[in-house]
Design a protein that fits this description.
It contains six helices and three strands. It is mostly helical. The chain has a domain of about 140 residues: Up-down Bundle (Four Helix Bundle (Hemerythrin (Met), subunit A)). It has a three-stranded antiparallel β-sheet. Helix 1 crosses helix 5.
Length: about 200
């Protein structure tokens, strides 16, 4: 589908991964900058609403072994969003972002010790930074030769023998596609937080 795409397992891109890329590219083109900006703002608000009732104690609980706590999810989003803002700033200035891509599952040790209020504030600040940056983004489409950003994407795919497993692949995205990806990332983790809280209530 795209010569720039590399899967880490050297397997063909799954139908789920192809649909994800098609969604990003078609929606980035049809929504335009204003539409992407508002959808990102809405997704950030939905995520922040999902964590608003979480207490300090609840944030650290792990209802499912080997799965993240709410604090770890919030730390991950904040770290990812601030890196995304940095990379988007380079793209909007017509530069390819330097350094490694934002790898999946990016986290720090702060989720283990930082006060919950500090983690939440870090998330708010990172979201605000990304949204403010998009407020100054041009309404025109990226030029065909505009630099892209090397991006690590993760999508759940159905296995032939049953079950689901993640497929990780790498491709270049233009700045609109990259911004729209951040919206999907926020919505995925909003759902994850809701699922963690539901598990806590039933456990």
């Amino acid at each position: 589908m795209d010569s720039k795409i590399t899967t880490i397992d050297n397997e063909p891109l799954s139908p789920e991964a192809q649909r994800m890329l098609e969604h990003l590219r078609s929606r980035a083109a049809s929504l335009g900058t204003a539409g992407i900006r508002e959808r990102l703002r809405t997704a950030a608000g939905e995520l922040e609403k999902a964590i608003a009732p979480v207490t300090e104690a609840e944030a650290r609980l792990r209802p499912v072994a080997n799965k993240w706590t709410v604090a770890e999810v919030v730390d991950h989003i904040a770290q990812t969003q601030i890196r995304a803002a940095e990379e988007l700033r380079h793209l909007l200035a017509g530069r390819r972002p330097p350094g490694p891509p934002v790898y999946e599952a990016l986290r720090t040790g702060a989720a283990q010790w930082a006060p919950w209020t500090e983690l939440v504030e870090g998330l708010h600040s990172a979201n605000d930074e990304l949204i403010a940056l998009l407020a100054s983004a041009p309404e025109s489409e990226p030029a065909p030769d505009a630099p892209g950003v090397r991006t690590v994407l993760v999508v759940n795919r159905s296995l032939a023998g049953g079950g689901v497993a993640p497929q990780i692949f790498i491709t270049d995205l233009d700045w609109r596609e990259y911004a729209l990806l951040q919206r999907l990332h926020l919505l995925d983790h909003r759902t994850q937080i809701k699922n963690i809280r539901a598990a806590l209530q039933t456990g």
